[in-house]
Amino acid sequence: MADFSLVCIDCGHVAPSGTVSGKCPRCGSEWQSAHYDYPRLGLTLPAIIGNRAFNLWRYQALLPIRNPASVVTLGEGGTPLVHAYNLGLMLGRPSVYIKDERQGPTGSFKDRQATLAVSVMKENGVTEAVVASTGNVAISYSAYCARAGIKLWAFFTSMVPQDKMREVALYGTQVIKVTGTYDRAKELAADFAKQRNLYFDRGARSIAAVESMKTLAFEVCEQLTRELGPVTGRGLNGGGALWRAPDWYVQSVSGGLGPLGVAKGFRELKEMGLINKTPKIAVVQAEGCAPFVNSFRAGLETAEPVTAPRTHIATLSTGQPGRVYTMLRHHILEHGGAMEAVSDDEAFRAMHVTAKMEGMAIEPASAVAFAGVINLVRSGAIAPSEVVVINATGHTIPVEREVLGEGWEKVLSGDTSEAAPQPQQEGLMAALDRLDDRIRSIAIVEDNADAARLLRRILQARGNYTINEAYDGKTGLALIREQLPDLVMLDLMMPEVDGFQVLDELRADKLTAKIPVIVITAKALTRADKDRLVGKVDGLMQKGSFMDDDLFAEITDALTK
Question: Is 18 left (phi over 0), alpha (psi -120 to 50) or beta?
């Protein structure tokens, strides 16, 4: 049983007891925060969790549930922290990690929210509830409500993919599809719950929802400590070894609940003396619906709503973040971080990159965070030495139409505004995939095996090419002369025979003089170096600062010269 109190964010009133779904007894505010005995837990938490399974409920002492018998669980939490080695190598950021929330019971990080929120419902005797969702929340709540025996009504905007709505219906939830924006769907859901006197999930105003998300911070710090080792220091526990926190935590957002809870988790770990710093938080949105980013860049204290979302990533189309924006803004201004927007095309490109480089298929909403990291690296906001954790928030498995039959959804008109534009038929990835047909064979001459492997993986993921590798200049020259490839990718810094010498000999030989060469190097080129390359190379790229589409743009340019 957790020992916690409720502190009103508006008036500061401390309530030692009461329900977590209520209001401040002094001022009536719906914005309250759960507080725990942090000095005591700083001394005892590592021992308390030491023998518990690695899942969300190992942190029960820091969760607002009074009766453990009320817990509704499907085995959530404890998701892998994957070292994104290939992506990090491509970006020149070797310490990029992916928190793989796809591994949750229903395939998204919202399972954390659902397990605690539904457990609190059960503890408080709720038998029927209403939720508004852009997809994953309703799926998770439907699964946990089914397990708890709670009837659920789920309100969606009509922009939500049909696959997600079908999955919700499969659990027995009544689907209400609103032909309007997500914010309008929330309004109608709240009205419906009020009229029927039903429990309405309040999102970020729900203590259970915020508290559930902080378990991501707890797990990440434990996992990084196992991966990279503890850091030296002295915390409240008096020890000389602390848990390791990342430098950056990055997540795509719709309403912002996830990062809000994660930020609280990092602050609690710092207050308990278990970590020595509060990480920077990066909030990433789709450009077509980016009220966080637009308001942050304008220096606004409160968010300016987006009334007409223009993004094909419907699950991120919350136009009115409300107070969550202000709270996250304060955290970022105090502890560092960023609010970043990416285009739909950048997100779709990031989906391809993540799948092809790391073997992880993520949904478009997750890909927004990955695209944000790429942009933050390119802008220099994320330094090469920093540890970055990206939340792969989830993916879902489609439910076949035949399983449900007809009549599984009800349509409710809530908006008569102009419909969102349809996706373009031709996108960035489609254009980049059209390479010159002349490429059939490629020679990679690179003494770093990891770099050669990355180049091979990028090429293999984008076409069927014959690829041969050589790991020094002498062997590379022999390979090129024997194979006469259509393209050479060449490193400059190699032992004995370096890339400059390879180039000189290739251009002096009639058989190889016309073969396009793209140099990919980590060397900071001097003026003299550049002079030696003039007229001999068809492209020049810096290691650790290119993506796969950059590489293919260089290839296309080289072949059309």
Answer: left
Residue 371, Cβ density class (10 Å: 0-12 exposed, 13-18 middle, ≥19 buried)? buried
What residues does CATH 3.40.50.1100 cover in the chain?
A: 110-204+405-413
Q: What type of residue is 170? A: L
CA dist 266 and 245 (Å) reads 8
Residue 515: closest CA among 436, 441, 451, 462:
441
- 161: helix, coil or strand? coil
Alpha-carbon distance of 383 to 377, in angstroms, equals 7
**Residue 468: strand, helix, or coil:** strand
CB-CB contact of 523 with 494 (8 Å):
no
Which residues are bridge partners to 128 per DSSP? 151
Burial call 325-362: b when 16+ CB within 10 Å, e when fewer = bebbbebbeebbbbbbbbbbbbbbbbbbbbebbbebeb
CATH 1.25.40.10 assigned to domain 110-204+405-413? The reply is: no
Distance (Å, whole) CA 537 – CA 516:
7
Q: Residue 267 in contact with residue 217, Cβ under 8 Å?
A: no
Neighbours of 223 (CB within 10 A): 22
pLDDT tens figures, 17-40: 655 547 888 999 999 999 999 999
Expressed in angstroms, the distance from the first to the final Cα of the chain is 71
Distance, CA of 404 to CA of 399 (rounded, Å): 8
User: What's the sign of the alpha-carbon dihedral 298, 300, 306, 307?
Assistant: negative
How many C-alpha atoms does 49 have within 13 Å on its Cβ side? 19
Q: If you average pLDDT over residues 267-294, what whole number do you get?
A: 96
pTM: 0.84
CA separation (Å) from 150 to 173, 386, 434? 9, 44, 51
Distance of alpha carbon 1 from alpha carbon 44, whole angstroms: 15
- Kindly report the length of the chain: 561
Backbone φ, ψ for residue 392 (5° rounding): -85, 90
Q: Are 34 and 211 in contact (CB under 8 A)?
A: yes
Per-residue tokens: 323: 């107070």
CATH class of the domain defined by 435-560 = alpha beta
Residues of the chain with CATH 3.40.50.2300: 435-560
- Which of 200-209, 384-393, 475-484, 548-557 bottoms out in mean pLDDT, i.e. has the lowest? 548-557
Contact 408, 420 (CB under 8 A): no
What would the pLDDT profile of 48-86 be if each residue is shown by its tens digit?
998 999 999 999 999 999 889 999 999 999 999 999 999
List residues bridging with 441 in a β-sheet: 466
CA dist., res. 181 & res. 307, Å (int): 8
In this structure, are strands 409-413 and 337-342 parallel, antiparallel, or unpaired?
unpaired
DSSP state letter for 443: E
CB atoms within 10 A of CB 25: 11
Pairing of strands 14-15, 409-413: unpaired
Task: Count how many Cα atoms sit within 13 Å of the Cα of residue 329 in the half-sphere of its side chain.
Answer: 19
Q: How far is CA 311 from the centre of its chain?
A: 17
